[in-house]
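Hello,

Our lab assistant flagged a job as stuck in the queue for most of the afternoon. It eventually completed. Since we weren't sure the result was trustworthy after the delay, we are filing this so someone can double-check. Below is the sequence as submitted and the structure that was eventually returned. Let us know if re-running is recommended.
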Amino acid sequence: MINPAHLDLFRAVIRHGGMTRAAAALKIGQPQISRAVAQLEAELGFPLFVRGHGSAVPTLEGEAFAHEVAQTFAGLDHLQQAARRIRDRGTGSLRVACQPSLASRLLPRAIRGLDAECPGLRIAVHVPSPDTIWSWTASGQCDLGLARPRSGYTGVTAEPYLTTMAVCALPRRHTLADRRVVTAADLAGVPLISAGSSAVQAATEAAGVVPHFALMAEYTAARCGLVAEGLGGAIVDPVPARELTGLPIVLRPFRPGIPIETLLLRPAGRPPSRLAERLIAHLMLARDGLR
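-- returned structure --
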């Protein structure tokens, strides 16, 4: 069995061109290096240096062995570098599935922060339906998910991430646009653009208003676009709605309050990678920036 300490000293002699120089560089005595080289030669069964020279002149066998040692240590250096990358950045790639409302600004902002911290990342962002996000997270097809609550899924660790209160989107010249707050009772006779959720219907019916859902659109951007064309009002998520600054619409607080909840999802049964942990930290910073 080759003594690793002997290999280190052998490499030092080759690198510095002599035992005396190697000893000076390592701040040890030359006899220690001479003994280590002699013991290594005994372990190998062949001489490594030509004796009788002031500098370390390797034998042919010594040159061949030095080449093999250099390759071996180059591999070890590569492993050390890989270990540092894994320690600092995890595996170096992430798959994130995000609902549309957070995919255009909040998630990119978090990824920008992570990229500044760990350049050269490989991140895949997907924007499927909420049920698909839950399914992918449960099966391990994504590392992190941001989605509305769903029931019936196992294999997912879910924690609260963001809760906002719905707002009322109205055409800029609508009669209700000057109100500081729009109530469910105010919407009597106003055509509404539905998102397919029962929460708005329940709120208006509780106020004694029979809602008139003229149109339906799944995403906030589509509902706000219809509002901008004067086709009605809509109860929407304020986060994506506030990004639509070019539309002639106004956003007003809505009463009674309708919370819109987003959960942070991870595959259950396995800890997040270091890279996923850092992205979660930046997601928290991006979320706090909304307040």
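-- support follow-up --
The delay was a queue issue, not a problem with the job. The result is valid. The chain has a mean pLDDT of 88. The longest helix spans residues 60-89.
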